[in-house]
From TrEMBL:
InterPro entries associated with the record: DUF8028 (IPR058341)
Residue spans of biased composition, Polar residues class: 1-12
Pfam families registered for this protein in UniProt: DUF8028
Extent of Basic and acidic residues compositional bias: 18-27
Name of the molecule in the record: Uncharacterized protein
Organism: Haloterrigena alkaliphila
Superkingdom per UniProt: Archaea
Amino acid sequence: MSSPSPLSNESLGPSGPEPDRQHEQRARQLARSVKAPAQFLSFWIAIALPFVHLPLLTQGLGDPQVTLTFIALLAVNVFALYLGHGHNQ
């Protein structure tokens, strides 16, 4: 038989469901506190980005770099619309 370990397992803390629940509650609270500002910011970014698109369109999309910039900004706009669609409902 092996001898008992000189270190105790008491320093590890409880391994029950209580710390898991506290961690989940903190994560939910953090998500709720971040959700409203993220929706607000995304909503207003989605409103403002079309004004950035206009100069690119008036310049023309003949240059590949301008076209790539336009497509990237369009993708960011769609993502911002998706994130900000629930703002102020």
